[in-house]
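input
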Amino acid sequence: MKNTKLFFVFILIFFLSACTSSEVVYEGIKHPQTDSVQVSFEESSIPDDCSAFAHLLLNTKMHSNGEEIAHIIQEEAKSKGANRILIGMSREVMDEELETDRFDYYGPDYSYTFHRAWLGWKFGFDEWNEGDRLVGLGANVWGDSSITFRQTLLVQAVFLRCGASN
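output
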């Protein structure tokens, strides 16, 4: 009888733990929220007064278009206090069929002056390497609602804080 009660307690704990949220809470560097954010696609276009404070990979939901991708990443950046975003490469992820967008953060532990300490796209390699073919998500696609991606995309990005509010 005692073993039966212990078994049911174990099952109850298992089901209760399955009911908790799996949403990841952002614990990185955060600045006061901004009202607007500029987007760059080339490292050379980042002003000298910018500090990088968040490295991330965006996993888009399936069937996202250029306008939706631009909106979701810009809103995320503004909520974390970025006033500029550097967008890197993008690739399809054939094995994932996401229903919602997901942001995966990879540091850094402290803000750094972009032009003095940027080492390139050296974060999230385990996740990045699971992607498939590269896709174009540049200035000609950014914000365009007529261009839709059937698959989940993995998008490299860096959030920056530029100017005197840096």
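quick obs: Helices lie at 2-18, 66-80, 114-117, 125-128.
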